[in-house]
Amino acid sequence: MRNWYKSGEPWVWTTAGAVALSLIMVYAVVWLTAARGLTHFWPKPVAEVTYQDRSGTRVRLIGEVREKEEVSVVRLREQGYDIESEDVFSSRYLLKLGNKDLTGVDFRWYPAPMLGEFVYPEDVLAIERREWGNFYGHLKQVKENGEVVAEGAAAWAEAEKRLARSNALFRQALRIEKVDIGKINYALEKIRLNERKLELTDKLTDAAKAEFAREREAREADYLVLQGRLDKIRSDIERDSVTVETSDGQMVDIPFAKIADMYMPNAMSVWQKMGFYVHKFWEFVTDDPREANTEGGIFPAIFGTVMMVLLMSVMVTPLGIMAAVYMREYAKQGPMIRAIRISVNNLAGVPSIVYGVFGLGFFVYVLGGSIDELFFAEALPAPTFGSPGILWASLTLAILTLPVVIVATEEGLSRVPRTIREGSLALGATKAETLWRTVLPMASPAMMTGLILAVARAAGEVAPLMLVGVVKLAPSLPLDGNFPFLHLERKFMHLGFHIYDVGFQSPNVEAARPLVYATALLLVIIIVVLNLFAIRLRNRLRERLRGLEGV
Predict the structure, then answer these.
(1) What is the distance between the alpha carbons of residues 161 and 349, in angstroms, rounded to a whole number?
(2) For residue 281, what is the enclosing H or E element?
(3) Domain coordinates in residue numbering, the chain
(4) DSSP per-residue letters across 383-419
(5) String of b and e for 413-433 (b: at least 16 CB within 10 Å)?
(6) pLDDT 10s digits, 378-435
(7) For the purposes of burial, counting CB atoms within 10 Å of the CB of 483, is it exposed (0-12), middle (13-18) or buried (19 or more)?
(8) CA–CA dist 13, 11 (Å, integer)
(9) What is the pTM of this model?
(10) 145: left (phi over 0), alpha (psi -120 to 50) or beta
(11) Quick one: fold of 305-493?
């Protein structure tokens, strides 16, 4: 036994077991996230059931059965339910009732003994509204300008056609509002700032004022034309409506302008459900959020996350490489360099919120405020770069991940044999040529390793971003069609903050819970894709390096 311990084999098995356990835990977390998140887009059947309330009155309910759990019968009796059962535990169901504007609640628990039999009628309609969440009921009529155009069995086919028309018009109106009118507003703001700039420098002549007035009148004329088109589209959208009977027998008219989607889940075939699943997942990835981020898509958060990581990579890579090259290749090795290395290693353990406070104080207030005074005085007191934005968020994360890149690059440079440097110098190359043509290409895989580690950490950070640029809802993307196209001063959305906001700040926790898992899974996928891209690039550099060594 003593020889077995001395051989080191127990530690090998212990290490292998720890690695296996870590992999199992990682796969379990990913599986749980995927199972909870991906099932959110599958159309769930809508049940119809009778319920006996505390007063003994039986009412009809329509909704989705979301959860089932065991609960103490004593607890149910304490809540006022008259349950005659000798069992210690009973079941209760969480129903998503929708119709929040009528009932005031979206989800509610119901004891199983007070419920009748669940039935799933094929004509139950689920409506996904742009406001107030889902609506459940039975489709009765389709109306145009208040006049009935279809009812009964023919109502569903007519409703599908008019929904497609309404959504097409809604997309046109959204494009006019966000793109066309947005360009005009951006141009008007530029005109105002240019006029203010000339005024501050005492160069605002009467001719310049007249020119600004002509430009402003031209833009306002374009705005009136677009506003007329927008009003026409909105009136066309509001033309049609559907009449739906709720569980308590009310007849409710819902305009198609308020409907994002509607479907009959109980009547769907498997293939129809699969098509619906793909459609909703694509909508989740490409649409903007709505309903306090609990409905719709998360495209702005995806865009902001990827763009911030790319900007951070562009900033941290040259800084980290230059610092590592100086400390390894040029600086005289002594107490000062050793102290710098110790400081770099310690910086890797500083809590990320500290970097956020530093970014807010230095980048936003000091550097951004100075930039505003020097280059954007015409916009003051409204800040341009003197407020949190994607540039400062990227710089903050660049500083946060800088130690990782420095350490990885230094390790790569230290692995380059001294004989290669001496051989290059012996052939007449300068130290700079040796570094640029020989040493750095051989250390490039290590540099890419540092970048991979930096991307993996930066993409998941949330705490510092809350101080330096991330917001709950960004009205405009940092990249658009308005010159200079890339707007580094703008605030942005981030998947990590979106998860925090939806999971802990949402007014409707039950509705937001599946979106938390779906967004978390998407964040993991994006991090994996970014890392795979960097790993592929590193492997290509290694293959090229092997080819050069063969020559």
Answers:
(1) 59
(2) helix 270-286
(3) 46-120, 137-268, 305-493
(4) -SSSS--HHHHHHHHHHHHHHHHHHHHHHHHHTS-HH
(5) beebeeeebeebeeeebeeee
(6) 888 889 899 999 999 999 999 999 999 998 898 888 888 888 888 888 888 888 888 8
(7) exposed
(8) 5
(9) 0.88
(10) left
(11) MetI-like fold (1.10.3720)
